[in-house]
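dumping this here before i forget
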Amino acid sequence: MIALRPGTARGTTLAHGVRSRHAFSFGDYFEPAHMGFGALRVLNEIGLGAGATLECERRANVEILSWVAEGRVRRTCGAAECVIEAGDLHHLGAGRGIDEGLANDSTQASARLLQFWFTPARVNAEPVCAHHRTATANDAGLVLIASADGRDGSLAVRAPVEIRRARLAAGSIAVQSCCLGQRLWMQVVDGDVDVNGVRAVAGDAAVALNECRIELAARVASDVLLVGLGSG
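structure:
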C-alpha cells in the first residue's frame, strides 16, 4: 500500500527569515495523527533566508541527519562548526547531549535543507559528528547514502535506518526491492514522480507498508530520498 503525505498538509513555522514545514508534530505544531513513523520522529524541511540563523539548542539522545538541497548551511555541533553544501549529508549523534545550531552561510542567497531525527539504537552515547558528500558528477538511480553499518561508503548512523538518494532524469525509472512489512518513507525533494503509480511532487512524501518492490518513475528531472525503517 502506498499512502500520500502531501507537503501542503504539513505544519508550518515562520520566524526571523526561517520557514519550516513539519511532517510530524514539532514545536507548536501538534497533530495526533502524525507523531512519527517508526524510528523517524521528526522530518522538517527548512528554508533559510539570506543570513538567517537558527540559534543553538540542546539536543540529546537523537540521531539527526541534515541534507542540504540548495545553498550552503553552516552547522554548529558543540564547539565544532562546518559548512554543508548542496548535496552534502551531515550526521549529528547527540548522545548524552550537545548544542546544535544552523545558519545560512550566505548573506545574498537562500538555502534549503531537510532534517531527519531518528530514535537512536542506544541512549546516552558519546556525541559524534560526521560529514558526507552525496553528490557526484554521474550518479543516478538509487544510491545508499546512510545506514546503520556504514556499508558501501555510506554515512554510518546509530539507528536502524537506511537512506537512499535517487537522482532521476525525466522519463527514467529506479527500482528498490524491500522486505514485506518494511516501513518506507519517500520524500520528494524536487520534481514529480510516480511511486508505484501514486503521483508525488516536490514537498510530498509517499509512505509504503507491505510492499516488496518500489518503482520510482520520474515525470520530470527529480530528486528523491528513500528512508527504510525496518518492519513493525
